[in-house]
C-alpha cells in the first residue's frame, strides 16, 4: 500500500537580508517564483498535499504555491519563533493523520526529488526522524549533525555548539521527514531553551532518541540544499538552475555553442536538433520545434517557432509571435502577436505586430505594421506569396491580398486586392540637366557671400 505524505513548506521568513519589497520565496528562479520550484519537486516525490506556513506576503506566496500541482492549505505563523514553531502552525493539517510528514523550506529551490524520496524511504524502513544532511567545506552557520556509534543523536545549532562540535562538517540541510503517527507528540516536546530562544525543529532528533525512537541522516549534494537569503545567493541559485536545465536540453538533443550564455525559463520547450547560438534569452512561454535555428543575440518570450524556422541574429520575438515551418525572422526584427506563415521571410529591420502574414510572403527591410493609433491596436492581414517593398508602412487596420505587391516606401492606408500593385508614395520626377545648373547657382551664392565678408 502506498504511504500518504503531507509536506509542510516553511515560508514565513521575513526575508530581511534580501532587502526587498517582497518575500524571498516570490523571487524568480528560471522565470517563476522559487516556491513554485519547491512545489514541483514535491509533486515529483509523489506528494499530493502540502501545508504552507506563511507570514509576510501571505496571499501572494499562497497563490504562487497553489499554482502548482499540489493541494495546498495555508497557515499563518503570526510570530516568528523558530522552525519548530513554524511547523506547528500547520498543526491542524498534521493532525489529520498522514504516514509521512516532510518538512521543506520555501527558500531552497534547488532540492530535487532524489533526497526527498530517500528520506521517505528511510521512514518506511522504520526510522522516526530523517534529516537531510550534506558535507561542506565551510559549515559556519549550519546545524551540525552529531553522530555517535554510527547513529544520529542530535543536531547542534551553530550558536549552541561547543568548539569541538563546530569542527563537524556534516551539516543539517534543514529538510526533515517525520513519522506521521508520532509527529505531533514529538513536535509538542520542542522547547526554546537555547541561545536564540527559538523553538528549533532540529531538537526533534534528541527528543525522538530519548523516547527510544530512531533518527537517521540521509546525504544530499550541498548545492541542492542551498538556501536563498541574499541577492548573491539568489544569483548563485539561478546559475545552478540554468546549468541544470541547459544540460537536460543538451542531453535531449539540443545544440548550444556557448551554453553558459543561453538563458532558459522554467517552461522553455526546445526540440531535437535545434541549434542555439550564443547569447540567447528565452523568457517564459517559448516553444521551439525540431530543426529550428536561433541565431546569436535573440530574445524570445511567449513565442512559438516551428520546425526549420530561423530566428535572428538580433531578433526579438514577443508574446504571440508564431512562426510557421521554415519561416525566417532576421536581424533587428521585432514580432509581436503575429503569425508568420510557412516559408515567409521577415529578414531585416522590421516591426510586425498584430498581424497575419501568409505563406511564402516576403516582407522587405524596414517594413512597419502601424498597429497602434495611440488609443487602439489594429490588425494587418497579408496574404500568401505577397511582396512588401522595403521601408513600407502598413497602417492598420489594413489588408494586402495574396500575390499582391506593395512598392517600396509606400504608406498603405487602403486595402490592397489580391494580385494588385499598390504605390503609396509621391511619384518620382526627372529634370534633365538640372543638377548642373543648381550646383552652379549654389557656388555663385557661396562666392558672393565670401566676397562680402572679405570686403568688410
Ligand atoms: C536551519 C536549521 C539548521 C540548518 C539550516 C539549513 C533549525 C533550528 N536550524 O537554520 O540546522 O543547518 O536551516 O539551512 O531548523 N522559518 C519560518 N518561521 C520561523 C523560522 C523559520 O517560517 O519562525 C522558515 C524560514 O523562512 C526559512 C526556514 O524556515 O525558510 C529556515 O529558517 P532559518 O531561520 O533560515 O533557519 P536557519 O537558522 O538557517
Ligand atoms: Ca536559513
Describe it for me?
The chain is an alpha/beta fold and 456 residues long. The protein has two domains: 221 residues, Spore Coat Polysaccharide Biosynthesis Protein SpsA, Chain A (Alpha-Beta Complex), CATH 3.90.550; 171 residues, Hexapeptide repeat proteins (UDP N-Acetylglucosamine Acyltransferase, domain 1), CATH 2.160.10.10. The chain has ten helices and 36 strands. The longest helix has 22 residues. It is elongated. The model has no long low-confidence stretch (mean pLDDT 97). Bound molecules: uridine-diphosphate-N-acetylglucosamine and calcium ion.
Give a brief outline of the structure.
The protein is α/β, with parallel strands linked by helices. It is built from 10 helices and 36 strands.
Q: Count the beta strands.
A: 36
Structure ligands: uridine-diphosphate-N-acetylglucosamine, calcium ion
CATH superfamily of the largest domain: Spore Coat Polysaccharide Biosynthesis Protein SpsA, Chain A
Q: What structural category do the secondary elements indicate?
A: alpha/beta
**Shape verdict:** elongated
Report the span from N to C terminus.
Answer: 110 Å
The CATH top-level class label of the largest domain: Alpha Beta
